[in-house]
Amino acid sequence: EIKKEYKEEIKTIEEKIKEEVEVEIEVIEKEIEKEAKKEIHKIKKRNKIIITQNTTENSYNSSEELNSSTSQYQLEETSISIRKNINKKI
């Protein structure tokens, strides 16, 4: 009779422990999920900054290339013009 009583008490204690553990697991999972969302947000923000920087650098580089091309074209035009003037004088 006493053994049966102990068995029931042990079973009740085990069930309470199981419930408490399940609740703790849920709390921990929610905390992990919350932290993961924060980290994902940080990474996305960091990536946006990097993309913006790259876009700015690419725009600057494109502008430099365009200016360089324009300067090269102007040099060629000037060179042609000078040659024409020299040829006229000759």
Automatic annotation (TrEMBL):
<protein>
    <submittedName>
        <fullName>8232_t:CDS:1</fullName>
    </submittedName>
</protein>
<keyword id="KW-0175">Coiled coil</keyword>
<feature type="coiled-coil region">
    <location>
        <begin position="3"/>
        <end position="38"/>
    </location>
</feature>
